[in-house]
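Morning!

As promised:
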Amino acid sequence: MRIGLALAELHRAENDLAQELLRVSERHRVDHETYHVARDVAAWSQRHVREVAEIGRRYGQDLDPEPEHESSLGRGLRDRASTLLGREGPAELLMLRDLRGVFTRASGVSVDWEMLAQAAQGVKHAELLALASRCHADTLRQVRWANARIKESSTQILVS
Amino acid sequence: MGRIDRIAEPWGTRTPYGRGEPWPARVDTMLDDGLVPDDVDRWVQSATILHSNGDGLDIAVKDDRIVGVRGRVQDRVNHGRLGPKDLYGWQANHSPDRLTRPLVRKDGELVEASWDEAMGRVVGRAQELLAEQGPSALGFYTSGQLFLEEYYTLGVVAHGGIGTNHVDGNTRLCTATAAAALKESFGCDGQPGSYTDVDHAEVIALFGHNMAETQSVLWARILDRLAGPNPPAVVCVDPRETPVARAATVHLAPRPGTNVALMNGLLHEIVVAHDWVDHDYVGRHTVGYEELAERLKDFPVERAAEICDVPADDLREAARLIGTTDHLLSTVLQGFYQSHQATAAAVQVNNVHLLRGMLGRPGCGVLQMNGQPTAENTRECGADGDLAGFRNWSNDAHVADLARVWNLDPMQIPHYSPPTHAMQMFRYAEDGSLRLLWVQATNPAVSLPELGRIRSILAQERLFLVVQDVFLTETAQLADVVLPAATWGEKTGTFTNVDRTVHLSEKAVDPPGEARADLDIFVDFAHRMGLQDKDGAPLVRWHDPESAFEAWKECSRGRPCDYTGLTYDRLRGGSGIQWPCTEEHPDGTERLYADGKFFAAPDYCESYGRDLVTGAPLEPTEYAAMNPEGRGVLKFAEYLVPHETPSEEFPLQLVTGRTLYHFHTRTKTGRVPQLQAAAPDVWVEVSAHDAAALGLEEGDLTEVSTPRGAVRAKVRVGGIRPGVVFLPFHYGYWDTDGGHAPDGTARAANELTLTDWDPCSKQPIFKTAAAAVRKVAPGGGVPAPAPTTTGSAPVTAGVPATVGGRAAEVDEDLTTEPPGRRR
């Protein structure tokens, strides 16, 4: 039985995704939709971290239910830097690269949830399956958001 | 015939009526001092232009000058009534400071120029940028105040001719969420209800909608029901004690930014706690019920009560009224649209009507409102960025169909991504990739959020700014080229109100000087640019309003907003007519969605919908799987905490809004003596509780600040929710020493608002900023310059009432027969 390992991996991956979303948010403070929505959907990953830690105890995992915190000092600096630099073209290119990073990372998390859902069905653990279905739906929305932002922004950024 | 001061009595004399009876007539007439109707040379048919109600009126002309207005008794919308802005607002046409010649910037100054020179500069720069960068360098930011023919032409020029995706209107600030919410729930824009639902409703619920001030004639209709036998119950959701709140059976005053929580609490009562659901209707005509019902289980009314800080019993009572009536009319406006989670909240109101099967029957309707007179046309003609005729940008067949109508290659029409919304256009101008911005009949230098940022974007050397307007607005003062436009009464065209009523507005007088109709400017631009269809013929093949209208009719054929049964002649003489109007329905269509039929089929719908939190559009296949039969869509929305919440430094919440006596940035109404005197300067509303805590009294000068800046305003101690302060957004700088920007102390509310928008509708958020208020100087007993007749009514005794005096006296004729009894 390797479900505990899969949960530990998801715990790490969701923490990483939340951190990445928060970093992308800070780096693109001048792109207001990216800034705000990235923070909103980072909260979903932070909730997943708590839920994975809780159910992980049943599979022998001692996972920290508290999501990793963003550094508030770093955040302030990055906020100011991104406001100053935001009027230059390269910041926009960087945003595309960052959104691509969110897309691939969230896609990885999506696959992790899929694997866990398969395992949950194998061991007939209804609660684990419900958790996986619920969280996977959120992850797919994160993937689609990153994809949509890329689709929306890339024409303007790449042709001008 | 009586005389009445309509500044002091904005809704006029009551004409009570009972449920199901026709609304009595009352003809309001205002003429220049000393004139009587017999002095008028001619009456020219039109409709009201300073709000979205679409009241039919006639313009009085004497010696080729506009001398007054009279409500059209035969019009279905107003039965002869007019609101204060309409009764006095026409005087702005005569202002001595109208723009009468084009202006171009030379050596840093705007100087007069010929039309040839001004248009030559615009066309020259546009062609330069097209050659250098392509269409992505050009953007058009239009209005909710032009006419249908003008928007349609603009859409053809921008989407079809230039091929840019950057087209939007200031309707983004007023009505984008109405359109977005209708698309989410019904697959397509298009107002379900009708104003006549007021005549039949048993319960009228107004969600964030201060109708008394935004659509004053529709509110008069409700007041007349309230004064008659078997009046409706009124539910009001608003943090301010508006006239609507004072008339309400139940008034819910939630914390700003918590509308979704409030709606989920109400829906929990309707769905989970009491099962007031029409299961037959839901089963046959909707998708999404199971998930909605499941997710609502987590939202009992107590949880909503805690988040919103509203008594749970009041929520229960509101839910009981909404949930048990057989005739429910709901209306929604800026309290939802300009707040956090705008679309998600507005969609929950649609959900109420889908769940209860209350659509398409007399007294059962939703009115997702808008603020401006012609905003509906901005939406349907595609001047808000959507494709003309409610076509779906992500449906290739719709793009091909539009290309057929315009005789273009489909590739020429940008449809690779959602249209660029206004806030994103300003972002592109900020990052330097949008280099020509053409603004028409709107004033972003006062109306957009975070004005310091907006001014810095508009003032950039690298941005070529064209402004087409009636006056030298704050925005026009920053322009490279200013084009003087004709306005209402000086040009012919049609426009469509909130409940789909189309009116013809005829030219009454010539525009001043060299000012030209917006339509003529667009057509001229198209010709100068040499815009062609795929066979080399001119792309814009029409030359005047009526030929433009005929072209639009073909574009609308077979779409939900079908105008093919209308002609200018049919619109002359009688009442406005509601679309869809076709050969089969020559008198128009009073209500959409009778019998649970929607415009939502995957191959017909305007939109596949978006994620209500992230705004990501659904893919065609996702939508087709979710809603193969084109039913109404029930969508749950999770509540999110607002992005800016009060802190120690900024402990209050700021909401901005409007007053009855002004329109937008006062470009017209600030030049009208009666309206200007009624609300002459900015004020800030504070509750008695906060006034006591801050040591403030009525009339004290304060500084209101947020992380973006500070403004100064005198205090009106009023009936607003404790912890919330209100600033009217109308007051900019054109009539101050600053000109286009503050000279010393600022007064524009949007200096303070934050740059954030609803990811789904892209409507900016004006109603959830954290703010602080401090006293600057005592008022010395002089009250704030705020009206006493409206949502800004004082709680302090002794504040003199707002009156207009003799100059504001209007004739009221209560003896005319209502339209239903004529013919």
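The interface with chain A takes residues 133-134, 136-137, 165, 416-418, 420, 423-424, 427-428, 430-433, 611, 613-617, 640, 643, 755-757, 759 of chain B (CB under 8 Å).

Hope this helps with the figure draft.
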